[in-house]
Amino acid sequence: MNDTIVACLAAAAKRYGSLVALDGVDLAVRRGELLALLGPNGAGKSTSISLLLGLIRPDAGRAELFGLDPQRIEARRRIGVMLQSANLPPTLRVGELLRLTMSYYPNPRDFDETAALAGIADLLKRPYGKLSGGQQRRVQFALALCGRPELLFLDEPTVGMDIDARQKLWAAMRTLVAEGCAVVLTTHYLEEAQALAQRVVVLGQGRVLSEGSVDDLRKRVALTRIRCVSDLDAEAIAAWPGVASASRDGVHLSIATARAEIVVRRLLDADPALDELEVQRAGLAEAFTELTREPTAELEAA
Amino acid sequence: MNTIAFAAASPDAAPVMPPRRVLGAYLAEARSECLRYLRAPGFLLPILLFPGLFYLVFGVLMGRSEGADAARYLLGSYSVFGVMSPGLFGFGVSLSLERDGGLLTWKRALPMPPGAYLLGKMLMAMGAATVVVLMLLAMATGLGHVVLAPMQAIALLVTGMLGVLPFCALGMLVGTLIKGQGAPGMLQLVYLPMSFLSGLWFPLSMMPKFLQQFAPVWPSYHLDRIALVAVGLAHEAVLPHVLVLAGFGAVFFALAVRRLRRYG
Fold first, then answer.
1. Whole-angstrom Cα distance, residue A213 to residue A198?
2. A268, A291, B95, B125: which could join B86 in a potential S-S bond, CB 3.0 to 4.6 Å?
3. Which residues 81-120 of chain B have a CB within 8 Å of chain A?
């Protein structure tokens, strides 16, 4: 199993003064997978990435890249990096930046191929400083993938991109993953995680709150909510098969279930007078909000 | 490089970086570093022109009444003054801006060969120092009627090219201590008083006694002595000054590297 893990944190902890940025995080990135790292600001996403890149050292626990200390250049020759903010030299042309970055790697991707994949073929002659924010992000993406990395770190890659550019970047990421490149993606856009990620890790307050596929994550929190006006006994309903919980709120009955169709049919049979039926499936966004809003309650529920 | 040892130790097919490509990475980094500053004249021109202007006014025009020896003396001193600036500012300001802007963080995450970034900046500073000394030499011989033997001119040029290095290290140290826009001001506070106190603007003999005695604590004093030997106005052993400068450089560099490693 260990040979398929390309990067990992083991019980990694990091504090800045009295602020605990990471509180014992375990995280493993497997070869060829796209792992999305989600969490609100301050959850520890950037700290996790910095540890994996060897930019900072853990106070406790370990960070490993290809089984090595991330500060070893041999490990970093196998990764590509796109950070949240990097003011690249504004007077260098895009093509020059690309050639420079390629020179760091043992076996870089072909120059034209990289430019085409990142969608910057038309920008190569332009000075970096003259590009728009979205174009600069595309150039940074090109620099991240030019080394033919086995593991790509993308920290909020699509911030500042228009919809078209974002779609192109998604397509490029899918191409890379299809080639066997693992990707660690942090993002604020949940639809991005939903569209791309095979596995989602949710961080909150420096800890891993949830880990699994997008569907797992959604299932875990986003049981379908049924609300209706009925005088059925909530406790009895809670014992029905497929019902996760049921509660009464005045005249309203509130039920959480993973199997809404069956429960609704049984409800209607049991109470012909049932009124104001609402069935709502929460999306990833709601699952995420709920996870990060009540971390302790969710951990107990697990 | 220990890449080969690692490849043998790792069961995984780790890519091996051939030495030729490592060298190529160093060259590419140095080339980019030079290109980016050559294209930003706003950064480079003041560094180059400031000492030239100073020499023109004080060495050539005002020094005319003092004779060629004054112009010769000031050629040595102003060369040192001019050489300090690409070291301090070229290194210090760019480093602090790049730490601030995230470029350094990005480069640390990439497999850039260790030191390539600093080596690129160093070459750039040496190049700028060479231009400064050449410019002053041209003014001194062309306008100031200073007569130099070819060996003296070459000695001054070499003094400038190598003499920039301890100031690169000092600039680097300041650059690691101060982030962003505060660095230029701080460097001026180092540069100008140090130049004055080590007798680069006025001969030390014109200064109060205690300042004269204090002068050897400044690295620029030692570089000035070497420059004066180079132009033939001082006759003393150069080696002690070289050693002092090397010591200064090594200490500044070690402190700066330590800070860069720890805090980035």
1. 6
2. B125
3. 98, 101-103, 105-106, 108-114
Q: How far apart are CA A211 and CA A216, in angstroms?
A: 8
Alpha carbon A277 to its chain centroid, in Å, reads 34
**Token pair listed for B105:** 């963080």
Q: Are A234 and A248 in contact (CB under 8 A)?
A: yes
ipTM for the predicted complex comes to 0.80
Task: Spell out the domains of chain A, with CATH numbers in brackets.
Answer: 2-218 (3.40.50.300), 223-281 (3.30.70.100)
Q: Does B36 touch chain A (CB under 8 A)?
A: yes
How far is it, in rounded angstroms, from Cα B218 to Cα B197? Answer: 8
Residues 6+ apart with CB under 8 A from B206: none
| Cα gap A256→A225, rounded to integer Å | 5
Interface membership of B21 toward A (CB under 8 Å): yes
According to DSSP H, which parts of chain A are helical? 45-53, 73-76, 94-103, 111-118, 133-145, 163-178, 190-196, 214-221, 234-238, 260-270, 284-293, 295-301
* 3-class secondary-structure state, position B166: helix
Residues in Cβ contact with B100 at an 8 Å cutoff, skipping those fewer than 6 apart: B179, B180, B181
**Half-sphere exposure (Cβ direction) of A157: Cα atoms closer than 13 Å:** 32
Question: CB pairs below 8 Å between A and B: how many?
Answer: 103
Task: List the structure tokens of A41.
Answer: 């600001």
Distance, in Å, from the CA atom of B115 to the CA atom of B15, rounded to the nearest integer, reads 21
Digit-by-digit pLDDT tens for chain A (302 residues) are 445 899 999 999 999 888 889 999 999 999 999 999 988 888 889 899 999 999 989 999 999 999 999 988 899 999 999 998 888 999 999 999 999 999 999 999 999 999 999 999 999 999 999 999 889 999 999 999 999 999 999 998 988 788 888 899 999 999 999 999 999 999 877 778 888 999 999 888 889 988 888 777 766 665 688 888 988 888 888 888 878 778 888 888 888 887 888 888 888 888 888 888 888 876 666 666 666 655 444 444 43
User: Which of B11, B36, B108 is nearest residue A55 as measured by Cβ atoms?
Assistant: B108
CB atoms within 10 A of CB A59: 13
Contacts of A145 in chain B (CB under 8 A): none
Distance, in Å, from the CA atom of A150 to the CA atom of A173, rounded to the nearest integer, reads 13
Percentages helix, strand, coil for chain B, rounded to the nearest 5? 80, 0, 20
DSSP secondary structure, A258-299, as one string: S-HHHHHHHHHHH-TT-EEEEEE---HHHHHHHHHH-HHHHH
Length of chain A (residues): 302
Beta bridge partners of residue A185, listed in sequence order: A36, A154
Instruction: Say how far apart CA A65 and CA A70 lie, in whole Å.
Output: 5
